[in-house]
Amino acid sequence: GEEVIKYFIAKQLYSYAAKGTEVLDFDELEGYLKHTNRTYATPEEQYEVEEWNRKMRRAKAQTKGVIMQVYTHNPFLWNGAKFSLRGFATILSLNPLVVTYRDGLIYRSMSKYAESNIRDRLSHITNVQNTHPLWGVKRDNALAYLEDFQSYLTSQDPSLNTFVGDRLRPAMKRIMQDVVRSVVRAPDDPHFEEKPGTVKTLCFDFLLDSHFRLYFHETNANCVIFTGFPEYKDPRQLQLRQDMTVGVLLLAEEMLYRKMYSLPTRLESFHRWKSLRKTMSVLVDDSPRSG
Known about the structure:
This protein is α+β, with helices and mostly antiparallel strands. It is 33% helix and 22% strand. It contains eight helices and nine strands. Strands 4, 5, 6, 7, 8 and 9 form a six-stranded antiparallel β-sheet that branches. Strands 2-1-3 form a three-stranded antiparallel β-sheet, covered by helices on one side. Strand 7 (200-208) and strand 8 form a beta hairpin. The chain is globular and about 60 Å long. Mean pLDDT is 83; it is low at 56-63.
């Protein structure tokens, strides 16, 4: 049947880590857009968001406004809690366009999902879990990986034992391919100028609904690659950090060398790719095939 729209989610431009992000119902929407009904969790959050806005406006980085989306009110729940999926796209070259893919973290809510209580940020917004009173002792429950999600699905329904590899990850990558091609084609965008020996990493956030439909929420060019908590020593997190820092920079170095000496630029020919392909894959590779 026709999808029912119940709520909207608004994210302020220039904000980060869900600061200024709110779930709104129809009654609140008009007031929010007119900035007559702005609410913040704390005075400190209000100061941080408004100060960030002032800095970014001074830098003329973007125009003032908000990103408004229909809120997915019927998310697929993992043990009763909402979660979001993240993937990384790293642009190694614009001409030819060469981009790698890497699984990111899954951010799980530490509170049970309460659809009717849209003021419960911990239930509705997955990347604010570090404000949970039990974050220090239950942090590991809020961070997971696609293989963990696959294990959960299989435990619930053995017929879904290949869902992540056969359906979920390919769907995420198709959306990411389309978005990357769109943003790099934008005329005169200073964020995507060809700068030899450098990379540009974009993070993509997704959500599954209760019918296993995938929703693309946003992409960000200034995203968190690792949690920022030095005491968090999960080996997979450390591998992610290694891949997305040292690994991609080594690929950029090899790309620069190959372009300087007119060598093949397809990722499959890279010396570094032999080890990195264990955890990364090709998202886009428009390099000409040799032979």
